[in-house]
Amino acid sequence: MDTELVGAQKTLSPVLRAKALDNRLPDPILGDTYAEQVMRRLDHGYDTRRFGTSQLGLAAVVRSKAHDDWAREFLAEHPDAVVLHLGCGLDARVHRLDPPATVDWYDLDYPAVIELRRRFLPARDHYTMIGSSVTDPAWLERVPRDRPALMIAEGLVPYLTEPDVRRLLTSVADAFPSGQIQLDTVPVWAWRVSKWDPTLRRYGTRFHCGFDDPAALAAWHPRLRYVGEAPMFDSPLLIAKAPAGTRRMYRIMNLLPGMKRSSRIVRFRF
Ligand SMILES: C[S@@+](CC[C@H](N)C(=O)[O-])C[C@H]1O[C@@H](n2cnc3c(N)ncnc32)[C@H](O)[C@@H]1O
């Protein structure tokens, strides 16, 4: 890999790895063949090191499935939507969902990540990649703003500061006539301890915000309405699909309410 990823950009890799390993299960949750192909190109020996093919990251796959299901629902209701897939990493959501040509889809991440995307993932019609930080407001000027918007931020929000998240949500709600915003967050304690998280430390990053009540983000804009939450660590799908050892780990984790809600997937409409 010639393109050097730094800091938060590196966090795309464990999520992709989880999706790649899911695809090798006999009855996968996401069934993303792109994830397996791209992961192999990103890191040829991804399944041969410590924890090999263990499905420790399966909760991230459940999170992805929840975002996919909500996105499918919104696109079925709004076939003229504009999709803003922010902090897309190397996720192949546009290919998994395969929206009709009436949908315009934008994948946005840092320029270095978008460069990798262009190498590893195919182009398609009505699909645009934008290499920019989500915190630079200029990217919104490149997107048609007269149609319903679907904003998806999977695994992104904890890497932004609270003022940046607020600016993002309010500028999207201001820019479009209607839409859905789906994102996931961590609680305040997880944000605070993230500076000691060994994986994040290795990547040279940490979380920059946390919310104990993500539904309360709706108060940031008069048109934002909280719709609901999808389960993650206690998802019946996760418990059903995880191999025995991993299932035990999630069951123990779910006995601790703070851990059970250590990542929350929520959606809003406006
Ligand atoms: C945990 S990864 C998730 C990737 C992808 N959404 C997925 O679920 O597979 C976080 C992603 O957010 C991106 N990211 C973090 N901060 C960003 C920012 N300010 N602007 C754009 N992308 C950002 C990183 O580069 C990385 O690709």
UniProtKB/TrEMBL annotation:
Gene Ontology MF: a single term: methyltransferase activity
Highest taxon of the lineage: Bacteria
Gene3D superfamilies reported in the protein's UniProt record: Vaccinia Virus protein VP39
InterPro entries found in the cross-reference section: Ppm1/Ppm2/Tcmp, SAM-dependent_MTases_sf, TcmP-like
Upper taxonomic lineage: Bacteria, Bacillati, Actinomycetota, Actinomycetes, Streptosporangiales
The species this protein was found in: [Actinomadura] parvosata subsp. kistnae
Name of the protein described by the UniProt record: Methyltransferase
Pfam families in the cross-refs: LCM (PF04072)
Keywords, in A-Z order: Methyltransferase, Transferase
GO biological process: methylation
